[in-house]
Automatic annotation (TrEMBL):
This is Cysteine synthase family protein. The keyword Transcription does not apply. Its cofactor is pyridoxal 5'-phosphate. GO terms for biological process: alpha-amino acid metabolic process. The lineage of its organism: Bacteria, Bacillati, Cyanobacteriota, Cyanophyceae, Nostocales. The keyword Ribonucleoprotein does not apply. InterPro entries: Cys_Synth/Cystath_Beta-Synth, TrpB-like_PALP, TrpB-like_PALP_sf. Coiled coil: none annotated. Residues 34-326 form the Tryptophan synthase beta chain-like PALP domain. Keywords: Pyridoxal phosphate. Pfam families: PALP. PANTHER family: CYSTATHIONINE BETA-SYNTHASE (PTHR10314).
Length: 369
């Protein structure tokens, strides 16, 4: 039997095994705690999901690789730190927030390591994995009943009202209110936008970001536009959300979409936006898993659908960066569950039908500032 050649870690011919491997790039740093371990996530090139990936560079920034699995940890760390600095959050205090998932998890993670009580206001739309994750971090869940939904079926306003009520009666409580907090955008100017600039400089044809509270997209847009004014920033919303001026209607997606226009959003900083149907977004999620080996969250499907349409329009050689907000494991009981999809009337598109659905998206354009 052929004997395997043995190498010490410093002698292993990694350049032959992993082209481009460089030991000098593998220097490890030790984070003081989990809050210092966020950011600088991998960026991967999509290759198999669409024919357009053969002629354009379609890149995905995997914010799902943050310690808690989402980009919202950046908001959580930034806002908590600022609140501590300003005396709004004191030792032994309570963090209260309305969240459909990821921001709540981020706050629970930060609260666990810094010793705060964390209360997250949720509703029936909050997927079971999110509930279990929040409880695992030690957060307390406060449910808002479904009969408090607004006219479009959204629970966001009811959750925010409940969070505000709790913050008013609980001693030493701090309610960051991600939906209205202007500091929400600063987190992504501080983290995400600087990471993009350091990696790419001006060598991008567009950045595609999901829209909800507007923290991510405005933080990225304001910083990158100040450095590289010609890089287009493209938003992605879900059909049923009112942010892009479309009619309100019930939708199941979490992570993007709102039943009101977020105060932090300045449409003049966007080049265009895509409003993506849920069935298309979920179809893209499944194809990402099966063709790219990427099990990612629901909103990522919408973001990639918009990014692929944009790549087709820009033509061969385009270099597009899409921002993946979270992991897919927290959607195993929803987006990746065939019974759930059938129950909600979603039929997954594949092959030519999927390509046609992406190509049929119609961008919403905005007047530039």
């Amino acid at each position: 039997m052929k004997q395997l050649t043995k190498y010490s870690p410093l002698e292993s011919p990694l350049e032959n095994i992993f082209p481009g491997a460089n030991h000098s790039q593998w220097q490890k740093t030790t984070a003081a705690d989990v809050t210092e371990a966020i950011g600088n996530v991998p960026i991967v090139k999509l290759k198999n999901i669409s024919p357009v990936c053969r002629v354009s560079e379609c890149l995905l920034k995997l914010e799902s690789c943050n310690p808690g699995g989402s980009i919202k940890e950046k908001n959580a760390v930034y806002l908590v730190t600022r609140a501590e600095e300003e005396g709004l959050l004191v030792p032994g205090g309570t963090i209260i927030e309305s969240s459909s998932g990821n921001f709540g998890v981020g706050l629970a993670m930060v609260g666990a390591v810094r010793g705060y009580r964390v209360m997250i206001v949720v509703d029936a739309k909050t997927p079971p994995p999110f509930r279990r994750m929040l409880k695992a971090y030690g957060a307390e869940l406060v449910d808002v009943p479904l009969h408090e939904a607004d006219e479009s079926g959204s629970m966001q306003k009811a959750r925010m009202k409940k969070a505000q009520e709790l913050a008013a009666i609980i001693p030493h409580a701090w309610y960051p209110c991600q939906h209205l907090n202007p500091l929400n955008t600063e987190a992504h100017s501080h983290y995400t936008a600087r990471e993009i600039a350091a990696h790419f400089g001006s060598d991008l044809d567009a950045v595609v970001v999901g829209v909800s509270t507007a923290g991510q997209i405005m933080g990225i847009a304001r910083y990158l536009r100040s450095q590289f004014p010609k890089i287009p920033i493209v938003g992605v919303d879900v059909l049923g959300s009112v942010i892009m001026g479309k009619p309100a209607k019930p939708y199941t997606m979490t992570g993007i979409g709102l039943s009101f226009f977020p105060p932090n959003l300045d449409l003049s900083l966007l080049d265009r936006a895509y409003v993506v149907p849920e069935d298309l977004a979920y179809s893209v999620c499944h194809i990402l898993a099966r063709r790219e080996g990427l099990l990612l969250g629901a909103s990522t499907g919408a973001i990639v659908a918009g990014g692929l349409h944009l790549a087709r329009e820009l033509g061969a050689g385009a270099r597009i960066l899409m921002i993946n907000p979270d992991r897919g494991d927290r959607y195993l009981e929803t987006v990746y569950d065939s019974d759930w999809l059938e129950r909600h009337g979603f039929t997954l598109k594949q092959g030519e039908h999927l390509d046609n659905a992406i190509s049929s998206l119609t961008p919403v354009y905005f007047e530039q500032c």
